[in-house]
Structures are given as C-alpha cells and as structure tokens.
C-alpha cells in the first residue's frame, strides 16, 4: 500500500523509489505482483497515471495507512504510560491533601491516563490489592507482604483535635497530660489494624491512659468532639483542615510520627500505573 501511494503521489516509479530509498526495479516488481494478485491494473504506464481501480485502491490505502500509524502511536503511548487506566485506592485521611495533589499532578503530566479512585479503610485496600482489584493504594499501616512494593510518601506528626467548646481549644499546643479525664475518640481497630495500633501506641508513649470511644462513621466522631469534652489524634495534614466546630492543637509530647505509604504489586503493574508510582515518589520530596 505504501508503494502504490508513493507512486501515485510522485507520478512515476523512479521518483517513488527515491522517496522510498529503494531501487526502482524491485518497486516495479512489487506493484506488478500486486496487480496480478488483484487481477486489475493499478497504473497506466508511459506516462504513469492511476487507473480507476487504482484510484479506489489509493483512497482506501491512505485511510488504512493512517489508521495503522495511529494504532502504532497509540500502542507506543500506552507502553510509555501516557494512556491507560490506573485503579487507585486511598484511606480517608489521604483525601484532604495528598490525593488531590497527586491527581492534579497526574492530570497535568499524563492527561491521557484515567485514574479511577476508591476510598476505603486500610483492611479493605489490603484485600483489594491482594485480589488485584486495585493497582495502587495510598494507605497507612498496610501489612508487610512479599508481593508488595511500597514507598513512604510522607511521615508526619500527630496533632490533637478537640471541639471548639473544649477547655483547651484556645491553646496552640497541648501536652497529653492536660487531656486527662477526656475520652479518646477513634475508629474501630478492625478497619485498619496496623494504623490503629500505631496511633494507640503513640498515645500511650508518655504513659498516659485514656478511655476510648470507637465509631466507624467520621461524622459521628466529629459530633462527639463538638460536645467539648473528648479528643482525637490525626496526622498533621488532616488536622490542618479540621471539621467545622473543631480545632487542631500541636502535641508537645515527643510522639512517634505516622507514615502514609504508596503500596503496589510490581508484578503486572501497567506502564500507566508505574508512571503514577514514579510521580508520587517525586512528590514525596516536597511532602518530606
């Protein structure tokens, strides 16, 4: 098809051969063989011009060649991670800063990639990754598994969140001992066991002991905080935008930081998934 189109465009076999960087006799033989196979003459010779069947062939050949070129380019773009679908799961605490920045950067750098996002607790994200229903997860405290690769995107301190009517709400910072008598409001452990254990361990790091009230629905926990007696601990990025009616306070105690990780399965990760992982790791330098 390329040979016939070249002869039609150049108006002669010799000029077409020069354009194709080949000798003229092999070009003439290829077109004679094609005419023999089709049972029609594509060109009149001396002077060279298209026959009516030749014009039909060239019109169709141009469309086929254009489609073939587009197919090749689309395949190469997918191989470079410039197109495709990435299924990304994330924990609720990543939705306030990390996820929006990652999605915005991905849309800017890889506009042809569709990112399908799903919010879930860490335990559910772990199951979805293992069952290959997700490609990548933004999570806290996912279990260590041989099939996982992981990178810490940010490690940040915990802050205290209390209601605006709490006696300490007017302070900028608080020590845990000042919260004695209050109840620690948190999510149930089964939703994110490792993350739960990390925060509870941090809470007990200074030896303080608090009653706990556990509730999976965030709005219910926020309502309890607004009553003014209890408190919770959240990563600093989440505390920078506390729910209405609450405030965040810096913790004076030396508590271990909590990390937010990107976790994925290297086996079978698509080029577009790999592009998202690489971009997130570059952004992690800013978050650090």
CATH superfamily of the largest domain: Periplasmic binding protein-like II
Distance between the termini: 56 Å
The total count of strands amounts to 13
Q: Measured on Cα atoms, how large is the radius of gyration?
A: 32 Å
Shape category: rod-shaped
Oligomer: single chain
The CATH architecture of the largest domain: 3-Layer(aba) Sandwich
Proportion of residues in helical segments: 40-55%
Walk me through the structure:
The protein is of the alpha/beta class and 288 residues long. The protein has 3 domains: 2-79, Arc Repressor Mutant, subunit A, CATH 1.10.10; 84-153 and 260-287, D-Maltodextrin-Binding Protein, domain 2 (3-Layer(aba) Sandwich); 158-256, Periplasmic binding protein-like II (D-Maltodextrin-Binding Protein, domain 2). It is 42% helix and 22% strand. It contains 10 helices and 13 strands. It has a 5-stranded mixed beta sheet with strand order 4-3-5-13-6, sandwiched between helices. A 4-stranded mixed beta sheet has the order 8-12-7-11. Strand 3 (84-90), helix 5 and strand 4 (113-119) form a beta-alpha-beta unit. Helix 1 (2-10) crosses helix 2 and helix 1 packs across helix 4 (52-79). The longest helix has 28 residues, at 52-79. The chain is rod-shaped. The two termini are 56 Å apart. The mean pLDDT is 90.
């Amino acid at each position: 098809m390329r040979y016939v189109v070249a002869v039609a465009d150049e108006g002669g076999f010799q000029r077409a051969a020069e354009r194709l960087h080949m000798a003229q006799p092999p070009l003439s033989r290829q077109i004679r063989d094609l005419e023999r196979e089709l049972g029609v003459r594509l060109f009149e010779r001396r002077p060279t011009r298209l026959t009516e069947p030749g014009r039909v062939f060239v019109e169709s050949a141009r469309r086929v060649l254009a489609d073939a070129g587009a197919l090749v380019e689309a395949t190469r773009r997918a191989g470079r991670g410039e197109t495709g679908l990435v299924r990304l799961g994330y924990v609720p605490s990543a939705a306030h800063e990390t996820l929006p920045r990652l999605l915005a950067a991905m849309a800017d750098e890889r506009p042809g990639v569709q990112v399908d996002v799903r919010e879930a607790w860490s335990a559910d994200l772990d199951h979805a990754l293992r069952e290959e229903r997700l490609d990548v997860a933004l999570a806290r405290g996912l279990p260590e598994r041989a099939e996982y690769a992981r990178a810490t995107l940010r490690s940040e301190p915990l802050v205290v969140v209390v209601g605006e009517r709490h006696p300490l709400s007017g302070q900028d910072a608080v020590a845990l001992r000042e919260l004695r008598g209050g109840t620690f409001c948190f999510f149930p452990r089964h939703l994110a066991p490792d993350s739960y254990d990390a925060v509870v361990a941090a809470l007990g790091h200074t030896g303080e002991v608090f009653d706990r009230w556990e509730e999976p629905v965030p709005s219910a926990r926020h309502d309890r905080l607004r009553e003014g007696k209890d408190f919770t601990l959240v990563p600093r990025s989440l505390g920078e935008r506390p729910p209405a009616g609450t405030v965040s306070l810096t913790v004076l105690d030396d508590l271990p930081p909590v990390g937010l990780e990107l976790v994925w399965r290297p086996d079978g990760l698509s080029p577009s998934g790999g592009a998202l992982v690489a971009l997130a790791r570059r952004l992690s330098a800013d978050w650090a």
